[in-house]
Write a structure and sequence with these properties.
The complex is a heterodimer of chains A (about 100) and B (about 140).
Chain A lengths: L1 H13 L2 E9 L8 E12 L8 H11 L4 E14 L3 E14 L1
Antiparallel strand pairs in A: 1-3, 2-4, 3-4
Chain B lengths: L1 H12 L1 E10 L2 E2 L5 E13 L1 H11 L3 H17 L18 H7 L6 E13 L2 E13 L1
Antiparallel strand pairs in B: 1-4, 3-5, 4-5
Helix pairs in contact in B: 2-3
Chain lengths: ~100, ~140
Amino acid sequence: MTRLFITLAAILTLSGCMSLNSVSLTQIPSDKGQLVSASAHDWLFLGFTTQNNFVDEAINNLKQECPNGKLTGVLTKHQTTAYVLVFKREVIASGYCKKA
Amino acid sequence: MQKLILMGALLLLGACARLDHVQIGDIDQSKGNLSPISVKVSETGVEMAVIAGAAAELATHSKRNQQLQEIRDFLALINMGPRTGNPVFFDTYAENVLDALYQQCKTGKITGIRNIREAKTYGPVSGEIVRIDADCIL
């Protein structure tokens, strides 16, 4: 039983393979302000999904990190982590917030 | 007949969303209130090799089956290589998104442009979508 549990745990842990789907970066000014970041993710079983709403969630989260300010140097990463039969899709965004 | 029903069910139930690319631009929330705007264009993408393969499975005559398998292999070969999503028939479908975006923003001040390349897939057929979301500074 213990051996089975260890094997299962090892499979789950070691099989987490990550792929970077896209990366983008916008211009960074010299007076860039404070670095802020936000992210959002969703989980898929067998890769099936009918929506990509978590992307909007990431953008809203990023906006909330810099209310009434200007976000520049925005780095956006879209990545997927594959576990056994389960996938985690993630958008991670960071940028420099300059308050008005 | 059973194969046809099964394939139809798979096509209908297999409607999936795919996300290929996300890009977020600079967001300026200091110049006034923001109003969300969005433009979405789509083009039908078809994986012809899969369709030929499915037709080969359905073919009753062995000669026809073999011919369809050869067509499938040929289509797979000519579509081989790096690509995003299924092949589309027109590559100009996303050219007017900028104009369409400006039409939604009377002030002409647009910030927070988000480029999203995604798709809705129905088996071998897909809607290859380019979505541009942004905020209009009022």
